[in-house]
Amino acid sequence: MTVSSKLLGGGMYAGLAGISALTTVALGAAASPFLAVGLPVALIGGVVLVAAPLLGLAALVFFSHLDSIEKLMFGFLPVSAFKLLTAATLMATLLTMARYRASIVYALRDPVIVFAFIFALLSIVSFLLAEERGVALTEMRKNASLLALLFLTVVLVDDRNKMGLMLAILVGTSLISAIILVADTTLGLQLVAQSDAATTAQSAEGFTRSSGASDQNPTTAASMLLVGVVLALVHVLETPRYRLPLLVVVVIGSGALVLSFARSAALAYVLVILALAYRYRLARYAPLAVVGVLVAGVAALPLVPPEYWQRIGSIASGQDWTLGRRLSYNLIGLDLLIKNPLFGVGPGNFPEMFTNQEYRYYPGRTLLGRELHNMYLSILSQYGLIGGSAFLAMLAAAMKQVIQTARAPATPEIGVWALGFSYAFGGYLITSLFLPNEYTKYTWIMCGICAALYRINQSKMNRLP
């Protein structure tokens, strides 16, 4: 850093501090205690973000899963604290872009970011053609926030220490949410969740479900929980470093996944475990590990609620009425895609079309709008084959990068991380066959982490300037 840039940075911090002090005096004189305290705190937070934008990103990743805790802390604000923090972190990064010039240049060329920007541009066309423009505008705002989150992840996570922090946050938030989920289920309470989606969910068998520390519905929350559990599991299998604490995460997280009653997460978790079993089939301790898992599984059977087995069995028996509703989602989505193949029905317009009279005889259809529980078909029906293809290309590019990193890591540590992210992201994408995860923050965070890890690996191999 040059002397001039240091002086500029110091002057900026001093100026912001001065503005904070003057604001405190002015608002105090105006007899507004709340603003007299709140605005200076916000200005000080801005100074911290300018000094270290990564702290803002770390908080965003943390609250992406634990959004119920975010609302407990900042629910008094008139606007979303997450969106405010996203905008502030983006502004702080742009104000200090000289520091991140190389990262920004790289990010703008990365295929994950390129496809994301193409998707954003094409979504404007879908927005303009949407029948319900007001609903579409709301979704466009979500897209802008999610695109900023993706961009910040690729730009700010530019070395192994920062990547290690992201890994720790993803695993740590899964542990926190898992503990709260188990406590909710055991005590019959909702300790932190506040939204109707998180607090009123029940299985078809009448079992009250918990979202842990998330305000998403339990099934979406389980897909996020799965990410941290799989990351911990792969780390346990690959290296003895932190093996014991991460094994605790796997045990508690696995129990929480069962108690979430999320069949999509259970299916994805089983497939991930089978893939890992095949990978380590020739390992020295593979037979012993299989026996240990079987013994632990048998020992845990009494702890599994009877309703869970009924829920799993309902898939084969066809007794679960929600299966008919999910079928109707996909049938309606396909019909809308066929009728609007190029640019779809518009962002967020599927729930509006879901209630059309022409679909009144579809199985499980309700009179209230519902999202299409299939991220891939949902994207295609809302944005069409043109816009939707860009979104799917973003996912494919991210998965390709993390697999390439896992196959040719510059260091053993990066190899472990890339392998973990490839299985975690793969499991998450499987759950997305049954969930509208296109607007879930984890979808964009995971894409950003895959791209950032690829860049770190290439840099370590001296393939980047």
Strand-helix topology:
Elements: H1 3-29, H2 33-51, H3 53-65, H4 67-74, H5 81-95, H6 101-109, H7 111-129, H8 133-156, H9 160-187, H10 196-199, H11 218-238, H12 243-259, H13 263-279, H14 286-300, H15 306-317, H16 321-339, H17 350-354, H18 375-407, H19 412-431, H20 441-460
Short description:
The chain has 465 residues and is mainly α. Helix content is 74%, strand content 0%.
Give short descriptive properties of this protein.
single chain, 465 residues, mainly alpha, disordered N terminus
Report strand %. under 5%
Please tell me how large the radius of gyration is: 23 Å
Helix content: over 70%
Q: Measure the end-to-end span.
A: 18 Å
- Structural class of the secondary structure composition? mainly alpha
Explained architecture:
The model is unreliable at 3-8 (pLDDT under 50). The protein has 20 helices and no strands. The chain has one domain. It is mainly α and 465 residues long.
